[in-house]
Design a protein that fits this description.
six-stranded mixed β-sheet; mainly beta; five-stranded antiparallel β-sheet; single chain; 3 helices
Length: 229
Amino acid sequence: MSDLVRDAALVAVVFSVLAPATAVALLTDTGAAGNNGVSGGVLDLKLSEVGPPTQDGTADERTADDVVDTWEDRSHATDGSEIVENELALNNSASSIAADRVNVTVAFAENDTDLGSGGNANATARTVEVTRFVYDGTDLVGSSLTDMNGNGIVDVADTTNGSNAENLSSLSGVGASGIVSVNASLSGRADLLSGVGSADGIDVEVRIRVHARGYADRDVSRNNTIRYQ
């Protein structure tokens, strides 16, 4: 689906809603929304789940703008003994130009069962440790991603705050027809925080935007539910 929007407008859209949107940016010299010419090239990133399949996740999805259940476990252990891991490939093969920058934005929302403690999405996110976040072969945990809230781990809540969010917003780009990957591992540590336990959970959304020549294309991995058993 074509979507000729400038970066500034995209930022407003991405941070104002949680629902995903898909786009193919057809770049023109004028940038006019009504012009479908492609003199400047095509920017059309696709996502593919490489695996391994996660517990409760769907079959690996390929070359899509919107993928679901990439990191999924609805009966997760509370003591850090389980790891949810998957690799998400950022495939730029449908593009005729390189993306000069990749922006990864992490968001989360509460997803408890009826027995969960309501209103504790942020607390639950602080107990879901990001044990690995490898972008294009480099693990960012401990360098670009650090413990922002002082609980001794890098957790999902940390990835949304301060310098961590800034670092994820300016990752290296993807060449025309190139592929880079995000390989992330999550592990629940409900034992670290009182008030979080069985039936508490969060949905994690990972939004990907690639930028080139003042335009951007956006894709998303959503419905990534981590819930304690």
